[in-house]
Amino acid sequence: MPLMTGEQYIESLRKLDTKVYIFGKEEKNWVDHPIIRPSINCVAITYDLAHDPEHEDLMTATSNLTGQKVNRFTHLHQSTEDLIKKVKMQRLLGRKTASCFQRCVGMDAFNAVYSTTYEVDRKYGTSYHENFKKYLTYVQENDLTIDGAMTDPKGDRGKSQGAQADPDLFVHIVEKRPDGIVVRGAKAHQTGSINSHEHLIMPTQAVSEEDKQYAVSFAVPSDAPGLFMIYGRQSCDTRKLEPGADVDLGNKQFGGQEALVVFDNVFVPNDRIFLCEEWDFAGMLVERFAGYHRQSYGGCKVGVGDVIIGAAALAADYNGAQKASHVKDKLIEMTHLNETLYSCGIACSCEGHCTAAGNYQIDLLLANVCKQNVTRFPYEIVRLAEDIAGGLMVTMPSEIDFKSALQIPTESGLTLGDWCNKFFKGTEGVTTENRMRILRFLENICLGSSAVGYRTESMHGAGSPQAQRIMIARQADYETKKQLAKDIAGIKE
Ligand code: SF4
Ligand code: FE
């Protein structure tokens, strides 16, 4: 099948029998649900832009598996140039959506599973790499969106997988059959899981030999029997249920999506298994996926940052504060922080290397530094945006009040809408509605439903800050650095 369009992608979701629960009930028409639909629109853009000649170079690539043109979100990186283009593509999409466009988790999982299965097969004589190549060819040929799923609920953080009171707190194998395996457990806060065609499951952390049933990687369709999802709510999400809501949403068209994905005895056939009890490779798979996703944040969050900087500058214009030197300086600081994140995303891509399987892996140290910065800088960018926007961002009446024809029984005889528009007017020549729009956009991204995708996801997505610090310590190579110091200081031990 050629590359799908956004519309074809949305229609393809309707053909799945995906089980989705939201606000206490099963939602059959989740594709058109006002809370869910903006996240589907976001993924649809990853399809539409692949057809745009202006963005074709970033959005598509030539598959090493089939020689065909594929969407870059299904591609195995073949060079450092591919790694750089990936980051540029993510920045582009962040700029277009100001949201998490979700499809990256699948791309990052493909690249990690591809290189890891090659190394597992080399050691154990298994056939996971061939299984995976066959699977990815199917994904590329059908231009599918895949949820690359890593994070288990994890229960008591002080206990290993097998020591949990409830064994299901980590995804594990409950039965091995001649034709496949049966798995149980769940994956938590799964980005784009509901609007993905398939799920590609990986372990969440290293596994010891006694817990080897937790070392499992496989792929299943989103509507596999026994699989269901519970939608994760976001701040201010019910604003999307208000009739005619527009200005108050801040970002009406796009949004992110996270859900709990439950596996209640799900069968996985043999040819969709990519790791099955080879416990000593779980850590490699985790490290590689996390590395790719930490690189990703040096693209997507930077693109969203571009929109936030633009919104803050517009708010300053509309407030008449654009000439104030402190405002100019805050915009410079926001730009400096944002471009520093981008530099890290590009740097870990430039310093990438070829894996034994032949696809390209980012530089792990630089990718972890990238994500560590992402756990901090977006908070400062948002703080500065709120500073520039002013308190009105959180104290404005609703758009219903602004549009209201209700007569207020006072001497002037003005309507509720008239009073709102009179007192919330900013600079001359700017409509009050436009001023509201940009302030509501900032509210949405700083505190509302989009804050999930920009702020808190910057903290915890692709691993919480401490996970990066552990990786930075592992990659820091202090012994070499000590030797450098000894050589120059003339120390001979
Ligand atoms: Fe992609 Fe960024 Fe969302 Fe991760 S957080 S899926 S990298 S847009
Ligand atoms: Fe994420």
Describe it:
The protein is an alpha+beta fold. The chain has a domain at 287-477: Butyryl-CoA Dehydrogenase, subunit A, domain 3. 47% of the residues lie in helices and 14% in strands. The strands form four sheets. A six-stranded mixed beta sheet has the order 2-1-10-11-7-6, with no helix packed on it. A four-stranded mixed beta sheet has the order 5-8-9-12. Strand 6 (172-177) and strand 7 form a beta hairpin. Helix 7 packs parallel to helix 10 (377-389).
Number of strands: 14
The average pLDDT is 97
CATH second-level architecture of one domain = Up-down Bundle
Bound molecules: iron/sulfur cluster, fe (iii) ion
* Rg, Å, rounded: 24 Å
Strand order within the widest beta sheet: 2-1-10-11-7-6
Fraction of residues in β-strands: 5-15%
Major sheet size, sense and barrel closure: 6 strands, mixed
Alpha-beta classification: alpha+beta
Give the structure's gist in a few sentences:
This protein is α+β, with helices and mostly antiparallel strands and 493 residues long.
What labels would you give this structure?
single chain, 493 residues, alpha+beta, Butyryl-CoA Dehydrogenase, subunit A, domain 3, six-stranded mixed sheet, four-stranded mixed sheet, 14 strands, binds iron/sulfur cluster, binds fe (iii) ion
